[in-house]
Amino acid sequence: MSDIRVGLIGFGNIGAGVVKLLRDNSTVIRDKVGATIQLARIADLDITSDRGVAVDPAMLTTDVNAILNDPEIKIVIELIGGYEPARTFVLKAIAAGKHVVTANKALLALHGTEIYAAAAAHGVEVQYEAAVGGGIPVLSAIKGNLAANRFGSVFGIMNGTCNYILTRMTQEGADFSDVLQSAKELGYAEPDPTFDIEGTDTAHKLAVLASLCFGASIDFNAIYTEGITGISGIDIRFAEQFGYRIKLLAIGKRTDDGQLEVRVHPTMIPLHNPMSDVGGVFNAIRLTGDFVGPVMFYGRGAGQNPTASAIVGDLIEISRSITAGVDRRRAAPLGFLDSAITPLQLKPMEEIITKFMLRFSALDQPGVLAGIAGTLGEKGISIESMMQTARHNGGEAVPIVIMTHEAREGAIRAALTEIDTRDFICEKSRFIRIEDNLE
Amino acid sequence: MSDIRVGLIGFGNIGAGVVKLLRDNSTVIRDKVGATIQLARIADLDITSDRGVAVDPAMLTTDVNAILNDPEIKIVIELIGGYEPARTFVLKAIAAGKHVVTANKALLALHGTEIYAAAAAHGVEVQYEAAVGGGIPVLSAIKGNLAANRFGSVFGIMNGTCNYILTRMTQEGADFSDVLQSAKELGYAEPDPTFDIEGTDTAHKLAVLASLCFGASIDFNAIYTEGITGISGIDIRFAEQFGYRIKLLAIGKRTDDGQLEVRVHPTMIPLHNPMSDVGGVFNAIRLTGDFVGPVMFYGRGAGQNPTASAIVGDLIEISRSITAGVDRRRAAPLGFLDSAITPLQLKPMEEIITKFMLRFSALDQPGVLAGIAGTLGEKGISIESMMQTARHNGGEAVPIVIMTHEAREGAIRAALTEIDTRDFICEKSRFIRIEDNLE
């Protein structure tokens, strides 16, 4: 049996997990590959900090070229994250004929098209299972055994920080800022959690997922992205009363008119749907294929060990190709041939059609409901149900919540803009989109 | 682009689905494989019945050798089911150097070792994703991206007929025989449902799953298999009161003492666990890997279209190997090298340790509880809680339900045998095993 030599760029928490997994399960891996996956070099700017795993100091280098220029290294793992210098290192590795494994969703969301084309040109594989859903093997499934399907939709709860915060807000009736503070102290949120709570991380992952499902290159900047910072305890309680739970949901779907919706925002999910039960740091991804129907995947979406599982899984797949003597790459990086990948236009948010929960803060006085309902009616928005919880002695702001039937988002926005000019409205009106059709 | 010619043996409901999928999604498939998967011949004893799909009559044959002896056919799909002649046909196809795709769990559970060895000897692939969980791509995931893990456990709800019956019994409070009759009329149960309701079908699937997870050849006949025919409405209602739902669960796990438990029986699952919500004809499979942690897969476990999705997914994977010029099989059929597969002994049922719900039918008279509790205590069985719902005027049978702490099954059986000799016991006492640790 020959060794397959691997170089690791980026020796942080996840990198240490990869080292640990390759060491702890070396026998399992050899039994499945027929060769030993040998970690040959690790490059990082910091090669002195203790990562909690023992490595031969001779393996460590601060010079990334010690990996990129080593002809014996067949696979490079990129774990530094971010756009640069990750992009440069990955493209150099590909140009040197090395296969690449990465967990970098930001890189793939923005520069995937360039990287996949380079990989195709040089006949190497790029694998990135850890970029979406941590250890959940959903990307392999889409490229692999589910490949016979046309996918109609993909939904995902894919950011552990947001899901942890929303789960605690739901369970404790707590407010966003309090839970965020506590999440930071407990290590469930980064010191600067902007990328997570504003939805950017989820949008990166959705860009990758939707590209795979729909065989499309997707303009990341065209993805509508709304985070969870605007969600309040009152939204969560009203949603629950109507039979829904609020999740930060990534949504990709083909609509009946053949267009593509790709969007990330807080979404109300029916309580009876299994995805509403996905709590804490767990992730879930639900796809619908034209033949397979709905399929759901569930597991730990982040963390050292699950992420290492996905990365080493990618190493094993590539190593099997190497030991099987594949004379050209087995599948294009997106599972489609490059020639079949098309750029796809996304449907503008104004055009999407769904149900909405509208929340108004209005003075408790006669004529308010008639005023709101009148404007909604003029815009062609039909009301399914309405709730006004408290009555006061008049003159005070009370919440009014309305569930609509399916409506065009543009009409909702126009109606709320108009309603917000009325004297009886006390603060900016809000809406949350609903996803009833998760099957 | 060259064609990859495929032969189909067995033109029933699933076969018709494969024909439909290859026709409807031929563009998608060509875009992913770089070649056309061409169904060349279909063999069946009946080539005149209408299957609801149009096929060129010249493609149909009653002579299976027209496929097995055609050197242009590279892949054979076996969909006749059962042990023989399926086994003979599969071995002949392999001997002729053809790759094989099968959905036949019975065949693999009984003759998998022989078939995998033949495939290894002839350097061909055997793929069988449709054998477990219908369209759910769980086997590919275990062999593929999850391969870096040592699996500690696998749990599955994998028989749609049983799950449909138990779901309706739970929802309607109906009894087994009534729901079975209705399920037959609605087509959710076969006219002769023995293989399903006695657990045999689930045990076949578990044999396949456990072989993959644990890298072992498993003696099918050593798998403890208990179906759902003994479950009554009263069991379901008591289970619910204690916070559990009864499912026919396939269980494979490594225990702390290094032994393997592989068993199929009605099992009480905590209501708060997502698997308890898997209803009707849906399947769910939950694995735990040492690095990835718990992962759950959920989807349609049977039916023409989902099963066709898995079968054509297998065709795509093999076709990619062919177009990539793989000069020997990419991975052994179990994901492990043949040399790494070991026969594993299963732990005897008497030795398994779990919690139990015990149900007694006893006369309502003084001393009964003391008598039951005394015997349990003598056998080292500790009681967690007890419920006796109705009180009568004495002399009538009432149900007494006891939840135990963890106990050895042998002790439970011995205690019940002894208790059943007592005068106050009106019918044979029953027990249902509990699975609290699904994570």
Please give a structural write-up.
Two copies of one chain form a homodimer. By secondary structure, chain A is α/β, with parallel strands linked by helices. The first copy, chain A, has three domains: 169 residues, 3-Layer(aba) Sandwich (Rossmann fold), CATH 3.40.50; 159 residues, Dihydrodipicolinate Reductase, domain 2; 85 residues, Alpha-Beta Plaits. Chain A is built from 14 helices and 19 strands. In chain A, helix 4 links the parallel strand 4 and strand 5. In chain A, helix 4 runs parallel beside helix 5 and helix 5 runs parallel beside helix 10. Chain A is elongated and about 80 Å long. Chains A and B meet through helix 1, helix 2, helix 6, strand 13 and helix 12 of A and helix 1, helix 2, helix 6, strand 13 and helix 12 of B. Strand 13 of chain A pairs antiparallel with strand 13 of chain B, so a sheet runs across the interface.
